[in-house]
Fold this sequence. Notes:
The protein is of the alpha+beta class.
Amino acid sequence: xxxxxxxxxxxxxxxxxxxxxxxxxxxxxxxxxxxxxxxxxxxxxxxxxxxxxxxxxxxxxxxxxxxxxxxxxxxxxxxxxxxxxxxxxxxxxxxxxxxxxxxxxxxxxxxxxxxxx
Length: 117
Ligand SMILES: [Cu+2]
């Protein structure tokens, strides 16, 4: 009886592990396809200052009026993606911030660190 219960409990775990294995295997297999690999060679990191203007739906991104960024672009307002929601949880429109972000070849600008000034 207890053996049967135990095997019933283990069964879903085995399925999950098996599916994780399948994901890993297909991930490795697709490594041959260059388009499936996130480019890192074209990624560049910048640190700048700005003013928080607004947020995207569910705070998936924050619009910041940033200063001139040497080697990247002139001052303007544009969106940046937090890597985790906690990074921008305490920010409000009007806050002055200093932040570092990574701009990658896929056009995304992800915030590495951000702090109010
Ligand atoms: Cu910009």
